[in-house]
């Protein structure tokens, strides 16, 4: 108890509070720019924290971290360009809401859910960090493999009604991630002698090109005539609305936190899984992929509680939960402190100060984000599309270049944009491609390492992998059941996102053949000239 | 229980997207399985190429390791099967842009590609400014002020934001030394 | 609406203020360019780091650069060019103009990549500027491991899984070299992970029997008692417990050290190399940098330009043989 008092006292310092606010502001700027992520912001300001008190330095950096992870959803929702990878899962439903004129609503969901997730995560972190450390350690290669498999089943869920195309998308994603040096053997696969390919294809330029720049192309095509008739909603938050999105927010928080605790997996995976679970738990799934608030809330909550989760192994073991926390470790060690059990007993003011400070970060974020969302949504309404989308392309180019000072990354972005355009118009869901790229390497590395360690397949029957395997089979079984149970259901067969372009060119999707594939009812098409990008399987 | 039709119509109006563009659409674009079949062919070819390449992969460095070829082969096999499935059951979709928009779309892609290839040699500020001017024009902006002022201000602001404030390295190209 | 706008504008200004204040020192806007008559350096110097932001290579490079901006009299712009165990960054440096305005952050992988067929880099392709750090490899086991010493490992007949930061990395080669010299290389199994932190995580979680990483990286876990160090593959370091033997003390003829330094592409005029060596060394010796190195636990170890060149050449030859012996060579 007195630790909390010590922590509170440490945070009550005006310098600390100022640094928190400054950090959050910087974080929001950094997070909202696609390609620049929290890691960059934290790494750049890290040296300046060396001359500050440990807590002050950490608070600045945590402010940036929390702010950036939240703010990545702003461009994701408004222009389909995730500012940080963790916001990829918010693109579909978030942008669908924007297209319906409900940008402010989407942004406010993002703020609320992010803060809910963040606060939840920090509380759990504070109360249970040492106990949770053993979860992180218990996750061996076998468990990583099983977890990746489980997360890959999201592909099936997201491709409902478009199973073949969704799976192609996902497998292509896995294939792209194979390019480069093989993690285990160091053998250059599919690199054709190119130094750039040997380095592997970074999924951030792919994501930005696939989602945002392809959309920009489509906007050029339609010359952005779509915006004309969008009646923007004057959004007013209500308790009923809060009650509607809270359960998903909570669900997302739990899932995101657990996945965040596992080193090497972060908000990007957590938000997709949380989204999927929210969809599974929902009775009316018709709007998932087309602007369901619950899906958005779950994804948002998950990504922010994931950042708190990533702090668990970082503080208790000195093992970074994700790239950004790796930099944060530096902020602690440079003051002569070591993460680990000694940190908790030896520097309680720092540790508990961090907990309380992190809470304050989210409170500040709540205020700034709530106010800002009104600003952003007005901005998106006022700015003419003719200015907006060329600017998005420019930001994408800058962002992708800045990742590794590499023109190659920008080229990848361009190729992904063209591919994304074609695939989207042909009715392929795009999210599976990203999911495949992220999870493929984790699955492969986990499998091979597990085999190397055990020498045979006995690791499948270890407790943790076994549990995850059962969950995976259940998840797959569920997806298959839904596919067949709704065989014959017509109309919206469109997958998760980017499947139907907003232009006049409407894909008329018909059922070819007696079984399996589901088709759109022809009569509905006349209503769909410029449908929202993200459409979900409608069923009840 | 299917609630498709009501949902679809409700959504269509909720989406707020005016069917303004449907006028552009010529009957030929209304649908065709060409796109799906084409993609299926590409997928199958990729799968076969991949499978072929894997036979040049080395054996695992250690006996217990399943090897570097396992995943590529799985991916190749999966793509082959899926590609065939797609080929057998293509859906109709119109991927090509409607007649009136084709030029614009191509121009935007080419402009973006040019930007990508010129950012390093020309430098970000200049390349971005030129791109923006062209892109704005393509989008229908005709006010001279918009076509000239915005590109210059935007590229200047962005360069300052990234290269100075955020300490990110952005080549200045032909303006090297000036900034 | 106007109030919101004003509020937001104020907030943005505040942020910009902080940013400008913070970055002012960092990107060298405050540093005066030396030598108005155009003497070297009269332009910003590019420093290419082949590893990701936040790692030891990147962090030390940034710290060094922060001080060197004053000692060298030119702004130093850091670029991260990652991938291929350093290959991408190395190639970027080597292919830049040899005028002294582009330098690279060197790690020992510079001498190894060629032999492993990852990237053709020969000591003739670059010139050393200085070495500033080294850390020996340390082999450790989880605290609850039955092995109390390296001799236990050698004496036992077990198959020993060793977590490393990656295949072909210095930590992998380090333990292979030890295993070869100790005669246990037929029993050790390399389990490559993504970096030192993941490797340590595996050992901490009892997933593998041993772990091989750098001394500075293992240090926090040794101090917390979670990892038991068995041997140091080099000279003793003062922050490790005194009773940890070196391989030589155990009679095993093997030594592996990871280093950090700076280099330039071959062809840079000798006087510029000398100048860079001087000004970066001055930065290295500064209090600010030394304090930083002390708290992170990376040993400072200096070699000047010629010594560094020679060292890298020797390491190149040594690794050529070692990599062939281990069986990972492609030449």
Summarize this entry quickly.
Chain B has 179 residues and is mainly α. Chain B has helices at 4-15, 34-54, 70-88, 102-122, 124-138, 144-165.
Any key phrases for this structure?
heterotrimer, A: 540 residues, mainly alpha, two-stranded antiparallel ribbon, 69% helix, 1% strand, disordered C terminus, C: 331 residues, alpha/beta, D-Maltodextrin-Binding Protein, domain 2, 2 domains, ten-stranded mixed sheet
Report on this structure.
The complex is a heterotrimer of chains A (540), B (179) and C (331). Chain A has one domain (2-525). Helix content of chain A is 69%, strand content 1%. Chain A has helices at residues 2-11, 14-32, 38-49, 54-71, 73-79, 91-99, 103-138, 141-158, 163-178, 195-198, 203-222, 239-261, 267-281, 293-317, 323-333, 341-346, 348-382, 385-404, 407-425, 431-454, 463-485, 522-525; strands spanning 180-181, 188-189. Chain A has a two-stranded antiparallel ribbon with strand order 1-2. In chain A, α6 (91-99) runs antiparallel to α7 (103-138). The longest helix of chain A is centred in the N-terminal third of the chain and has 36 residues, at 103-138. Chain B is an all-alpha fold and 179 residues long. Chain B folds into 2 domains: 31-96; 99-175, no CATH class. The longest helix of chain B has 22 residues, at 144-165. Chain B starts with a helix and ends in a 14-residue tail after the last helix. Residues 1-29 of chain B have low confidence and may be disordered. Chain C has 331 residues and is an alpha/beta fold. Chain C has 2 domains: 42-134 and 258-326, D-Maltodextrin-Binding Protein, domain 2 (3-Layer(aba) Sandwich); 136-232, D-Maltodextrin-Binding Protein, domain 2. Chain C contains 10 helices and 10 strands. Chain C has helices at residues 2-26, 56-72, 87-94, 150-155, 170-182, 196-204, 215-223, 270-285, 287-296, 305-326; strands spanning 45-49, 76-80, 102-107, 126-142, 160-164, 188-192, 210-214, 227-232, 257-265, 299-303. Mean pLDDT of chain C is 81; it is low at 1-37. Chains in contact: A-B, A-C, B-C. The B-C interface holds B 61-62, 64, 164-167, 169, 177 and C 16, 19-20, 23, 26-27, 29, 43, 46, 77-79, 167, 189-190, 328.
């Amino acid at each position: 108890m007195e630790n909390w008092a010590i922590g509170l006292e440490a945070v009550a310092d005006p310098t600390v509070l100022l640094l928190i606010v400054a950090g959050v502001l910087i974080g929001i700027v950094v997070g909202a720019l696609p390609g620049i992520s929290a890691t960059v912001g934290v790494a750049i300001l890290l040296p300046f924290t060396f001359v500050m008190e440990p807590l002050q330095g950490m608070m600045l950096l945590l402010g940036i971290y929390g702010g950036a992870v939240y703010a990545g959803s702003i461009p994701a929702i408004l222009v389909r360009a995730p500012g940080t990878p963790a916001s990829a899962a918010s693109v579909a439903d978030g942008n669908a809401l924007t297209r319906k004129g409900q940008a402010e609503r989407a942004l406010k969901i993002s703020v609320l859910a992010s803060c809910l997730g963040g606060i939840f995560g920090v509380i759990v972190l504070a109360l249970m960090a040492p106990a949770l450390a053993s979860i992180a350690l218990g996750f061996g290669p076998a468990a990583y493999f099983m977890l990746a498999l489980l997360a890959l089943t999201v592909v099936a869920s997201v491709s409902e009604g478009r199973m073949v195309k969704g799976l192609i998308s996902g497998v292509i994603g896995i294939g792209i991630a194979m390019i480069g040096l093989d993690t285990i053997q160091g053998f250059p696969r599919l690199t054709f002698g190119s130094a750039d390919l040997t380095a592997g294809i970074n999924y951030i330029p792919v994501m930005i090109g696939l989602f945002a720049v392809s959309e920009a192309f489509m906007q050029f095509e339609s010359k952005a005539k779509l915006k004309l008739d969008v009646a923007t909603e004057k959004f007013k938050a209500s308790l009923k609305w809060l009650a509607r999105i809270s359960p998903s927010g909570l669900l997302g928080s739990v899932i995101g936190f657990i996945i965040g605790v596992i080193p090497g997996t972060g908000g990007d995976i957590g938000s997709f899984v949380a989204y999927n679970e929210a969809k599974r738990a929902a009775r009316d799934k018709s709007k998932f992929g087309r602007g369901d608030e619950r899906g958005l809330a779950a994804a948002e909550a998950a990504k922010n509680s994931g950042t708190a989760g990533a702090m668990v192994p970082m503080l208790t073991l000195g093992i970074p939960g994700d790239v950004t926390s790796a930099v944060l470790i530096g902020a602690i060690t440079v003051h002569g402190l070591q993460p680990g059990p000694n940190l908790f007993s030896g520097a309680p003011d720092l540790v508990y100060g961090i907990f309380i400070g992190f809470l304050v970060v989210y409170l500040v974020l709540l205020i700034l984000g709530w106010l800002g969302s009104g600003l952003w949504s007005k901005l998106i309404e006022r700015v003419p599309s003719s200015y907006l989308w060329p600017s998005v392309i420019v930001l994408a180019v800058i962002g992708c270049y800045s990742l590794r000072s590499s023109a190659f990354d920008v080229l990848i972005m361009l190729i992904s944009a063209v591919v994304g355009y074609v695939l989207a118009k042909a009715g392929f869901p795009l999210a599976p491609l990203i999911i495949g790229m992220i999870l493929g390497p984790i699955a492969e590395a986990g499998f091979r390492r597990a085999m190397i360690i055990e020498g045979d397949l006995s690791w499948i029957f270890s407790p943790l992998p076994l549990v995850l395997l059962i969950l995976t089979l259940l998840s797959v079984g569920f997806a298959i059941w839904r596919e067949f149970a709704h065989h014959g259901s017509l109309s919206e067969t469109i997958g998760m996102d980017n499947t139907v372009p907003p232009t006049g060119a409407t894909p008329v999707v018909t059922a070819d053949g007696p079984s399996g594939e589901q088709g759109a009812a022809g009569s509905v098409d006349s209503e769909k000239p410029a449908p929202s990008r993200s459409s979900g399987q409608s069923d009840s | 229980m299917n609630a498709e039709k009501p949902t679809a119509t409700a959504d269509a109006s909720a989406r707020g997207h005016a069917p303004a563009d449907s006028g552009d659409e010529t009957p030929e674009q209304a649908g065709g399985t060409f796109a799906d079949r084409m993609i299926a062919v590409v997928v199958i070819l990729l799968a076969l190429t991949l499978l072929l390449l894997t036979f040049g992969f080395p054996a695992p460095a250690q006996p217990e390791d399943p090897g570097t070829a396992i995943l590529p082969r799985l991916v190749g096999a999966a793509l082959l099967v899926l590609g065939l499935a797609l080929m057998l059951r293509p859906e109709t979709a119109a991927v090509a842009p409607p007649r009136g928009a084709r030029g614009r779309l191509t121009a935007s892609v080419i402009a973006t590609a040019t930007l990508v290839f010129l950012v390093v040699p020309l430098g970000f500020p200049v390349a971005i400014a030129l791109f923006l001017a062209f892109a704005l024009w393509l989008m229908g902006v005709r006010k001279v002020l918009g076509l000239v002022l915005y590109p210059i201000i935007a590229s200047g602001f962005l360069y300052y934001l990234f290269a100075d404030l955020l300490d990110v390295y952005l080549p200045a190209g032909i303006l090297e030394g000036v900034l | 609406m106007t109030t919101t706008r004003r509020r937001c504008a104020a907030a943005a200004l505040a942020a910009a203020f902080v940013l400008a204040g913070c970055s002012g020192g960092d990107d060298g806007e405050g540093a005066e360019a030396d030598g108005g008559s155009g003497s070297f350096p009269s332009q910003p110097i590019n420093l290419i780091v082949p590893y990701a932001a936040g790692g030891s290579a990147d962090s030390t490079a940034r710290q060094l650069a922060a001080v060197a901006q004053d000692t060298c009299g030119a702004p130093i712009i850091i670029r991260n060019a990652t991938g291929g165990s350093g290959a991408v960054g190395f190639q970027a440096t080597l292919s830049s103009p040899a005028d002294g305005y582009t330098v690279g952050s060197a790690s020992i992988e510079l001498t190894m990549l060629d032999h492993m067929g990852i990237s053709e880099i020969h000591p003739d392709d670059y010139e050393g500027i200085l070495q500033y750090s080294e850390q020996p490899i340390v082999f450790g086991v989880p605290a609850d491991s039955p092995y109390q010493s390296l001799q236990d490992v050698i004496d036992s007949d077990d198959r020993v899984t060793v977590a490393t930061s990656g295949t072909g990395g210095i930590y992998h080669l380090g333990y292979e070299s030890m295993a070869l010299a100790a005669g246990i290389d037929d029993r050790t199994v390399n389990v490559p992970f993504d970096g030192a932190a993941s490797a340590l995580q595996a050992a901490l979680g009892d997933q593998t029997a041993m772990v091989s990483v750098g001394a500075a990286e293992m240090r926090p876990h040794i101090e917390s008692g979670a990892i038991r160090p068995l041997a140091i593959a080099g000279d003793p370091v003062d922050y490790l417990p005194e009773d940890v033997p070196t391989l030589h003390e155990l009679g095993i003829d093997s030594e592996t050290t990871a280093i950090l330094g700076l280099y330039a592409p071959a062809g840079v005029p000798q006087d510029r190399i000398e100048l860079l060596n001087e000004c970066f060394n001055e930065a290295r010796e500064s209090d600010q940098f030394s304090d930083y190195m002390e708290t992170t636990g990376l040993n400072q170890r200096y070699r000047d330009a010629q010594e560094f060149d020679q060292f890298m050449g020797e390491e190149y030859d040594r690794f050529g043989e070692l990599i062939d012996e281990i069986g990972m060579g492609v030449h």
